[in-house]
Structure formats: C-alpha cells, structure tokens
TrEMBL record:
PANTHER family: ARGININE/DIAMINOPIMELATE/ORNITHINE DECARBOXYLASE, ORNITHINE DECARBOXYLASE. CDD domains: PLPDE_III_ODC. It is an enzyme of class 4 (lyase). The keyword Manganese does not apply. One of its GO terms (biological process) is putrescine biosynthetic process from arginine, via ornithine. This is ornithine decarboxylase. It holds the Pfam family Orn_Arg_deC_N.
Length: 460
C-alpha cells in the first residue's frame, strides 16, 4: 500500500470546533498587539484531504500524480504521499524531494518533455522510469542516458481556450507522432503511453474530449508498431477553487464519458492525471497588512456633497506582500487576486475605487488594478483566499522583503482520516462522507505521531 507518510507533523491540531479561518483571526489578533504585523499564511491540510476525496469521488478511474511545481511545500507533499497519490516531477530536485519522503519510484512520472542529460541520468540511477518526451532529440538522449525508461509521448492539445497555454512549448503535433514512435522503435526504446496537458484555466471541457480522442489515435499507432501501450496521462489544469468559469465537476462530467468511450474500463489502460492547483489552491489563505496608503483626490469631481463623495477620490493601498512574493501568480499564472475584508463593512459603509500595491520599489508590483474597498487605515488587514497554487513555490525575496510565515493546521478527525487512508487505503464512499459532518476535533500543541510502519517520512 502507501509507503510514505509523516511520523510527525510539528504543528497543533485545530482545537475542537475551530476552523482554519478561526486561526486566521487568532493570528491577526496576536499580531495586532504589536507593530510587527507581517504577512502570513494559514494552510488547512484538511482542505487538501477534502480535495483528494473529491477527486476520488469524481474521477474514480484516474490516479492523481500531484504536480510538485505547483507548491513544493514538504508538508503538503508529505500529506499527499500519505494519501497515496503519485507525483509529477519536472526536475532532479523535485524527484529528490518526493523520494526523500519514501515514495516509490513507480509513483513518480518525470513529466518534463525537455530534460537536461544529467537529470535523465539521475532519474535512471534513482529508479524513476516513467518520463515524457515530445521530440526525436529527447528520444536520443534517453536512449543514451537511461537504462530502462518507460516513455510517454506528450501530444499537443488545442489550448486556445486556456488561460495559461502550454502547447506553444510542449507536445508533439498528431501528424508527427507516427514518426516519433517509429524512431523510438529503432532506438530500442519502450513507449508505454500518451500524455497531454490542456493548459491551465481551461474554459472549454471539450478540449479534454478532443485530447482523449487524439490519445486513442496515438495508442492505435503505438500498438501497430508493437508497443505495449497501457498508460494514459490526462495532465493537469483542474481548477483549485469553485471561483472559476468551468468548475471541476463540469470538467469531470465530460472526461468520464470520453474515457468510457475511448478507453473503456476493460481495455487495461491505466489512467493517471497531473493535478497541481486542484489540490492546493484553496488550502491556503494569505493575510497581508496595509503598510501605507495614499488618497488621490479627483480634481474634476463635480460632487460637493462630502458624504456621498465616493467618486471624488481613489485610494491606493500598499501591503506587505506583492508580485515578487506570493502574488507572482499574477505574472506567471495570470491569476486575478481580490481580497476579502477582514472586518465586515457596515451596511452603509462607503466603498471607494482602490488599487492595491506590493511593498517593493517596482511599479510593476501591483496586485489589484481596481476594486472597491472601504476607507481603511495603515495597520488594517486584507485576506486573500485560494492562495496555495503557484504562490509560495515561485516567490522571491526581491528588495529584501521576506516570505510570509506559514502556519499549517489540521483538525483531529481530518488527521485521523489521513492516517486511515495511509494505512488502509481509501474508505468506501459511505464512510468517507461522515468525516466532514464531524466538526469536532480536539487536542492542542502536540507533536503528532503517525502510527507505525509503513509510514516513515517526517515533516518539520
Ligand atoms: C504545470 C503542470 C501541471 C499542473 O498544472 P495545474 O494547472 O496546476 O493542474 C501538470 N502537468 C504538467 C506537465 C505541468 O507542466
């Protein structure tokens, strides 16, 4: 069964009846007694568990291989290892991270079609066999540097409807697949399947259907050439929150019938996917503090009525994390981040047009171009939800601004559920639904011991 799991998470259980949101409040209250008021995260690992259960319910035929690049936090990766997911690694360092948690190489796919030679050798030396390719040059490198690779041909998809397009960089066009497979045959390589990635922020679920149909075409060619094609990898791009145009269950409602049509359950093809944001986005809440503020009066305003003067000014808020830090997702992931207010506004509270800026001295460091917020003061807090994907993973300390502290939390029932899955595998659907009715949880500042074997890894 699952081999990796934490023996020890060094953070407290949520107290009985408390949620991650209560921890946010508590941290805000603690910080507000001082002038420190640094930005911080609260990460609810119970949310990662919920996502896993949601995945297994919606896509029972598909084993998730979590895309580590999305958030390589050791605690998150350990949690997922305990839950029995596989991992999509794109580099030697990501492979090393996952293997340091005791994850078996068979649970890793090296899903980078363009790899450095030394890193292919590293994968070979560490037993990682599954890897993607999309070109002839890559095949030649693998033939030279890997002892027994199981190759997966990454095909291009129509990602014109995705927010983050990937097929401009990766994926072989359908018409070149036969040539690539023939070349693999000549080189004596073993091709086991097909992968694709529809791009992230996909707004049309039919993209998956077309890609799955294309994969079937390539399977036929592979079979014809004598490969034993038995792996389909449908990639990532599944939304991490419900705050999106195309919801997770709307996508799965299209994927499942497409799989049943092109890869029916009796065809003996193992199906995997590479979700990244799906697992982590909503687990993280980022809390930032207003460090500076400007009021820009509009000279042309015709309103002389002070109280109704919502149009006569624009507010600029400066906060202590920005696009060089956690909000790099705005630049790299085309994210749109809007704050939720920490203090509920009064019903008659005036809302002003505002912009929100990061702390660095760069004009590019803007988080929100325009939104409506009340008149707040230096020292007030803003909360950003759904901040787990492509945030902490790529943030820098440009201009000397440090990364926010990270506080992990989990409720005791959620923790017990993770342990149970780690030791016994997924529960029957009927049992699983009970978990989230139980809001009760207990215990405090404890160092949490995982049971005994086979769970070995350790989280600090
Ligand atoms: C980035 C990436 C993923 C994860 O994408 P999400 O949109 O976070 O699900 C999966 N597979 C590959 C090959 C990737 O490059």
């Amino acid at each position: 069964m699952n081999t990796a799991a934490p023996t020890e998470f060094e953070f407290p259980f949520l107290e009985e009846g408390f949620t991650a949101r209560d921890v946010v409040e508590q941290k805000i209250n603690e910080s507000s007694t001082t002038d420190e008021r640094d930005a911080f995260y609260v990460c609810d690992l119970g949310d990662v568990l919920k996502k896993h259960l949601r995945w297994m319910r919606a896509l029972p035929r598909i084993t998730p291989f979590y895309a580590v690049k999305c958030n390589d936090s050791r605690t998150v990766v350990t949690t997922l290892a305990s839950l029995g997911t596989g991992f999509d690694c794109a580099s030697k360092t990501e492979i090393a991270l996952v293997q340091s948690l005791g994850v078996d190489p068979s649970r890793i796919i090296y899903a980078n079609p363009c790899k450095q030679v030394s890193q292919i050798k590293y994968a070979s030396a560490h037993g990682v066999q599954m890897m993607t390719f999309d070109s002839e040059v890559e095949l030649m490198k693998v033939a030279r540097c890997h002892d027994n690779a199981k190759l997966v041909l990454r095909i291009a998809t129509d990602d014109s409807k995705a927010v983050c397009r990937l097929s401009v960089k990766f994926g072989a066009p359908l018409k070149s697949c036969r040539g690539l497979l023939e070349r693999a045959k000549e080189l004596g390589l073993n091709v086991i399947g097909v992968s694709f990635h529809v791009g992230s922020g996909c707004t049309d679920a039919k993209t998956y259907t077309q890609a799955i149909a294309d994969a079937r075409t390539v399977f036929h060619i592979g079979d014809e050439l004598g490969f034993n094609m038995d792996l389909l990898d449908i990639g990532g791009g599944f939304p991490g929150s419900d705050n999106v145009e195309l919801k997770f269950e709307e996508i799965t409602a299209v994927i499942n019938p497409a799989l049943d049509k092109y890869f029916p359950a009796d065809c003996d093809v193992k199906i995997i996917a590479e979700p990244g944001r799906f697992y982590v986005a909503s687990a993280y809440t980022l809390v930032v503090n207003i460090i500076a503020k400007k009021v820009i009066m509009d000279e042309d305003s015709v309103s002389d009525d002070e109280d109704e003067g919502t149009n006569d000014r624009t507010l600029m808020y400066y906060v202590n994390d920005g696009v060089y830090g956690s909000f790099n997702c705005i630049l790299y992931d085309h994210a749109h981040c809007l704050p939720v207010l920490h203090k509920k506004p009064k019903p008659d509270e005036i809302m002003y047009p505002c912009s929100i800026w990061g702390p660095t001295c760069d004009g590019l460091d803007r988080i929100v171009e325009q939104c409506y917020l009340p008149d707040m003061q230096v020292g007030d807090w803003l909360v950003f939800e759904n901040m787990g994907a492509y945030t902490v993973a790529a943030s820098s300390t440009f201009n000397g601004f440090q990364r926010p502290d990270l506080h992990y939390v989990i409720s005791r029932p959620a923790w017990q559920h993770v342990q149970q899955i780690c030791l016994q595998g997924m529960p029957a659907p009927a049992e699983e639904s009970r978990l989230f009715e139980v809001s009760a949880c207990c215990g405090q500042e404890s160092s949490l011991e995982m049971p005994t074997k086979p769970c070995q890894a350790r989280v600090v």
